[in-house]
Amino acid sequence: DTGVSQNPRHKITKRGQNVTFRCDPISEHNRLYWYRQTLGQGPEFLTYFQNEAQLEKSRLLSDRFSAERPKGSFSTLEIQRTEQGDSAMYLCASSLNRFPGKNTEAFFGQGTRLTVV
Amino acid sequence: TQLLEQSPQFLSIQEGENLTVYCNSSSVFSSLQWYRQEPGEGPVLLVTVVTGGEVKKLKRLTFQFGDARKDSSLHITAAQPGDTGLYLCAGVELRTGTYKYIFGTGTRLKVLA
């Protein structure tokens, strides 16, 4: 397994356009997370999935943002009508959780850097 | 309001010096991770601490989890230019039952040759 894979690595888009990012987690991992990171800051939580179920969404995830994980494997994050404030690094992470109440390490992808011009 | 506060935010030191980075919170965490991130890349996991008072060593890096599982520290001995990067702590908050990782603000370390 090559780890968490994110595509594309970089995306430049015009304001108002829609963009979609893809994340392929480590194959046996059942939890998948999306984070957003702006320059000089730590990653901010956006949402996470347990298998195909989206269990939690941050208030940062406005109605222009939607995330899916249809078969409990890869996930997509779509941003509609992009704004300049959406420019950031979008990070995906996955982890394996076998037991209720136990959380294991999260492994991150290399991120997708979005620039909205 | 950041749940996890890291200090210092920036640190520039000479090669061979020692340093300590702190990660503090008022919340209790079931586990706490330390990551290092280089520009344009995702965070890379360094260590996970789980038990209050736990100390883990990774070559020249020593990680400690506070007894109450609210804080942690990272100590680097004889820093090298290769240690340069953004150091992030991240925890899973115990009280709320959520499984999301909360990140600290980060400590940007620069080690000068």
Explained architecture:
- The complex is a heterodimer of chains A (117) and B (113).
- Chain A is mainly beta and 117 residues long.
- Helix content of chain A is 0%, strand content 48%.
- Chain A is built from no helices and eleven strands.
- Chain A has strands spanning 5-7, 10-13, 19-24, 31-37, 44-50, 53-57, 65-68, 75-79, 88-95, 107-108, 112-116.
- In chain A, strands 2, 4, 5, 6, 9, 10 and 11 form a seven-stranded mixed sheet that branches.
- Chain A is globular and about 45 Å long.
- Chain B has 113 residues and is mainly beta.
- Chain B is 0% helix and 55% strand.
- Chain B contains no helices and eleven strands.
- In chain B, the strands form two sheets. In chain B, strands 2, 4, 5, 9, 10 and 11 form a six-stranded mixed sheet that branches. Chain B has a five-stranded antiparallel sheet with strand order 1-3-8-7-6, with no helix packed on it.
- The N and C termini of chain B lie far apart (36 Å).
- The model of chain B has no long low-confidence stretch (mean pLDDT 91).
- The A-B interface holds A 4, 6, 31, 33, 35, 40-45, 48, 50, 55-56, 91, 93, 97, 101-111, 113 and B 2, 4, 6, 30-31, 33, 35, 40-45, 48, 88, 90, 92, 97-106, 108.
